[in-house]
Specification:
Blueprint lengths: L52 E6 L6 H7 L4 H7 L14 E6 L2 H43 L6 E5 L6 E5 L3 E2 H8 L5 H5 L1 H4 L13 H8 L2 E2 L4 E4 L16
Helix pairs in contact: 1-2
């Protein structure tokens, strides 16, 4: 039984076959161990806002209502409301029995931590929604620009983290042509790109306050390869490419 069968190519070890086993019998299926713990749903306990409990304390030497209010997470006004016999908050005698509205510090810390985390999650969700809206607007604007042939003059790239659009000039172009062609508000290129604008500005051009200075600035020529950053939400294809503002 331990020899190799030349016809079948199977090795059968001595003693492995049980006596009386039927030929071709199917092996018994073994049950897989079931981890009952894995089927349990873990429920996170949401901290509830602590409910103040009215307790009575004994004033020690040098005790004040301000100290009691701080220790028990309440206010001097609330303590005086619970103790109408106290007419002067600074006149507390040692051994005096005082009612206070007490909030457990651990419960308060847990509740505040939960509220902070909840607030952060809501802020992140709102931030993500605003970013998505910017990217969608920028994508639609660039698509329209391509259809209008603007990709002959500009290369567009969307920053997926900020929703801003970077435009790279494929040819020399006056700043006024860029602003008008992309429909950007006056001063947008300057405010978003202060470093690159330095080489196109002279004197007090950053203090533009009249049309003449704006016109002079518009006449400055940007060079091929220059990169400008613009806000993605400036793009509004319904009003014309990049908002249609001229």
């Amino acid at each position: 039984m331990s020899e190799v069968s030349k016809t079948s190519g199977v090795v059968q070890a001595r003693g492995t076959a049980k006596a009386g086993a039927k030929a071709g019998a199917k092996p018994k299926k073994t049950k897989e161990p079931v981890n009952m713990k894995s089927n349990k749903t873990t429920q996170v306990k949401v901290p509830q806002k602590p409910v103040p409990k009215i307790i009575t304390v004994t004033a020690g030497s040098g005790c004040s209502l301000g100290y009691l209010a701080e220790v028990h997470n309440t206010t001097v006004a609330e303590i005086m409301k619970l103790n109408p016999d106290i007419k002067n908050a600074d006149n507390i005698r040692e051994g005096q029995r005082i009612k206070v509205s007490h909030i457990d510090q651990k419960e308060l810390d847990a509740y505040n931590a939960y509220q902070t985390e909840l607030s952060n999650q809501q802020w992140e969700a709102e931030k993500a929604a605003r970013l998505k809206k910017k990217i969608e607007a920028a994508t639609a604007g660039i698509q329209q620009a391509t259809e209008m042939g603007y990709d002959e003059y500009y290369k567009f790239a969307i920053n997926q983290k900020t929703g801003e659009v970077t435009i790279t000039l494929k040819t020399d172009k006056e700043l006024g042509d860029i602003r008008k062609g992309l429909g950007l508000p006056r001063g947008h290129l300057r405010s978003k790109n202060p470093k690159i604008m330095e080489k196109y500005s002279a004197g007090n051009l950053y203090d533009i306050d009249n049309y003449v200075r704006i016109k002079d600035w518009d006449d400055a020529e940007a060079k091929k390869g220059d990169k400008f950053v613009i806000d993605g939400d400036c793009i509004n294809p319904k009003k014309g490419f990049f908002g249609g503002r001229y």
